[in-house]
Design a protein that fits this description.
The protein contains 4 helices and 2 strands. By secondary structure, it is mainly α. It is globular and about 40 Å long.
Length: about 130
Amino acid sequence: MMKLATWIVTAIVANAVGLLLAALLLDGFRIDLWSFVIVLLVFTVIMLVTAPLLAKITDSSLPQIKGGIALVSVFVGLKATDLLMDGFQIGILANWLAATLLVWLGSLTAEIILPHVFKAVAPAAPPTP
């Protein structure tokens, strides 16, 4: 149960880092302050659903693009979130491509670093008798 909670928190924080990075660096990429949390949660849920689904589909039919699944998942997540949320705007095609890379890179970096942070902050489990 604790691993699942850590995994979900890591995904949410990692996606927040990626979305904020894109919002800071891209002119047409906007997330309203008031809707940021909702956009973040919608994007994270979409990512958690589409990533394994796309991985499963490509494992059987297109194993050559296995490495690009994360990028495709981020793009699909951004597109679906853009369609569902009013307070989220990506802008022109160049922003779509740059946002996909920035959100992926920010999320990847956070997903690598956050588990180490959680281990350092979390109290050690009591010894079992």
